[in-house]
């Protein structure tokens, strides 16, 4: 299909299809937004109703508890000591707990007197240390409010206190049946009920099983997952164990509440890679968060029908638009087609076969070819003349043209005449690091510099500038004969070039200048002198202009220098092994400072740097590593020899050698730590039923016990003794669940000298005794 006809067809299609696509997209977006808004309002309403039901029960219980705390019976009891002989008064206090059952089912209640050291619960009476609530009193004392809510695991609130005969029976008759639940919600009153930092006289603690409160949660399937978080982001009041599924989501909700200060909200998020809609409300009563999480797929299910209908209608309209566009485009293209056939009959070059070209551009090119043949020929000849000049200069610099050939061909290229002496300037880029350029821009930058030199230096005093290898080379021609004046004149020209390059390109460059010569045949020698002058950057630095006379050797290197360098190399290698980047940098700075103090000739630097490179390679090989794999291609010796400045070399050593080797040594050391920890864990798994200690492992693995202890703690997160005890208790739990072995037999199988030590360890780790654990599992 012709290119312009294709453009007409595409433009017509876009003009007709764009309104259809926009209208369909907007209608679908509006419908989806309306559905999402309705779901949002519905979920927030459900959360509000759930919150109101739960808080109504809590407020009613709170009011009843306040009446109980302020009753004369409680106020009188808080001022006097009680003992088990005062049966009637204790019974009256317990009866007050039973009255609270009219509001909701209570799991447990405590009246605690801190001054007189007694506790009355729904089932017993005794000292504070006889009750499990003693572990919670310290936490309650940290709260400043006189009334607060606490959520906790029920195992920490179970009562197992023995009471005196008669007294226990009387209280047990009034106690309700405990609700089986994993968590409890505790309502705590300070007595007296005045917010203060002074230690209270006592507490009234009401424990409510979360199973009781969870019955008030909504069971509407459209509301998704509904759960409640306490102020510590712990799940409770829910029947489903969500585990860590919503941990990140809960943190996000907490941040939104703290940032915006709004008590409710609705937004979209992702849970396990799936989009969801989140609704939340914060309770002003106790700062609980009521959260509803609904899958967006469930929300947008209804909008999918709208999407299907909209898509079908859009496709039909696009098809009609396409048919109309094809017919109209062909009608509009017919005059252009006739003009194109006419231009093809003109005597001019045809376009390449297979090339699809715009018709108007083709017609323009055919017509302009008829009127510009002569001008095109002249431009082509002028361009070829410049290339021939550059080619000639390249051959002259490399010694492929004799003086006779120059005399014959030099006049053809308009080179300077009447000169007395010549000199070669070689310009190289010092480095591209720290500039706005990349390494792949180097050739383009040299081309730009070459053009600048051609414009800055008049053609009367220079031959054609050329690019040779990685440098820009210019041959200057002067009528001066005095060597000092010639040197100053060439230095002035070089400084002018360097200044303009820095100004326009912001590029660090250096220039090497050869000795002046009078015979054109000495040009190759002068070219090598300018190259050798540039090599002096290794010892003298970058961004400079160097004359060949200034870089001649200054004598032999002192033998003591290599001994001093070897000592610093040893310190540098030790710092790399220790992974100490700071010391590595300090020793390397000393190494470079020593080289600078000795003012070495540039030819000595590659030898010394290769010696240091070999030492770094040796560090990699000591750990069994492959140099090419650890350091990569850019850390090779060939790459080092290509570097031309000291700054490039020092940066290359730090970035390409020292840092990768330090990381490699650290990885190897960490791998050794992991291997030792695995072997110690394997010994625990194999010998848990025997007398196993850290010293025994050290003897088995041939390491010092202190070293093994540090390695195991780092990798496992716990010390050796704790890990061994936890592993043994896991074995014990398996036997308690699956066998009928006696507790004493299990203790013996786990190498405990007596059952008491085993029971104590089991209870410390699991929070319960072996017998109770077996009962719970069965």
From TrEMBL:
<dbReference type="Pfam" id="PF12833">
    <property type="entry name" value="HTH_18"/>
</dbReference>
<keyword id="KW-0804">Transcription</keyword>
<dbReference type="InterPro" id="IPR018062">
    <property type="entry name" value="HTH_AraC-typ_CS"/>
</dbReference>
<dbReference type="InterPro" id="IPR009057">
    <property type="entry name" value="Homeodomain-like_sf"/>
</dbReference>
<dbReference type="InterPro" id="IPR020449">
    <property type="entry name" value="Tscrpt_reg_AraC-type_HTH"/>
</dbReference>
<keyword id="KW-0812">Transmembrane</keyword>
<feature type="transmembrane region" description="Helical">
    <location>
        <begin position="306"/>
        <end position="328"/>
    </location>
</feature>
<keyword id="KW-0238">DNA-binding</keyword>
<feature type="domain" description="HTH araC/xylS-type">
    <location>
        <begin position="678"/>
        <end position="776"/>
    </location>
</feature>
<keyword id="KW-0472">Membrane</keyword>
<dbReference type="InterPro" id="IPR041522">
    <property type="entry name" value="CdaR_GGDEF"/>
</dbReference>
<keyword id="KW-1133">Transmembrane helix</keyword>
<dbReference type="Pfam" id="PF17853">
    <property type="entry name" value="GGDEF_2"/>
</dbReference>
<keyword id="KW-0805">Transcription regulation</keyword>
<protein>
    <submittedName>
        <fullName>AraC family transcriptional regulator</fullName>
    </submittedName>
</protein>
<dbReference type="InterPro" id="IPR018060">
    <property type="entry name" value="HTH_AraC"/>
</dbReference>
